[in-house]
Model the fold of this input.
Amino acid sequence: MTTTTPAPRDRPALGARPAAGGTGLLAGKRLVITGVITERSIAFAVARLAQLQGARIVLTGYGRMSLVELVSRRLPEKPPVVELDVTDPAHLQRLPDTVGEHLGGVDGVLHSVAFAPPSCLGGFLTAPWEDVATAVHTSAYSYQSLAVSLLPLMGDGGSVVGLTFDATKSWPAYDWMGVAKGALESANRYLAQELGPRGIRTNLVAAGPLRTTAGKAIPGLARTQDDWAARAPLGWSVSDTEPTARACVALLSDWFPATTGEIVHVDGGYHAVGA
Done:
């Protein structure tokens, strides 16, 4: 039996400039987008598409603020950039005031933050608890703490969206980051339970492997990427962040008013097939 790898399908373009005259899927929305480091990051693709769909945005970054500032200038419109360490209570405490100065309020937030020390990747049996705790704090607990920080600015119809990598399975060398993603997926369900009565939705997008700065830190990811491209029913491009960005933008919009606690797979269908 001969198999072929399907090629990712072409998609209609979504324009090259921000939507004018109050049009677009996110017209009038005010968004906080974390995790923009380079133009190849998923967060950058979300920021770009959000602006094209009419949103006003604030970017957050930490550690390499000059780089975030540089990248922000490559968006259709230069947005404000604020410093945020999601593990620092002082940063989280002042975030509502800082964001409020730029946007007034917040209609949605993208959590695109994850980190694990090198010992946690490819060292499941040897990573010390201190490193594991860092991975869980940065990659999972911060989802709750970021949402809680921005609650004073969010109201009915708000949306929290995070990024995950299918934690229902183990992946080569992903190790404790996979455990952290499992915690993130559980936190998403509990956050949905807590924020639902406030009219705020919280959902995750499970993207397939992408050639991003974060992905480079994972040993053996290239092998997973090759397997993904071969097996995904719709095909998969490791360099194309736009399908994931489109899902995030849709969830940040008003088009999913009754969806919360969900994980939307954007992986070419890989999660649905067996060997």
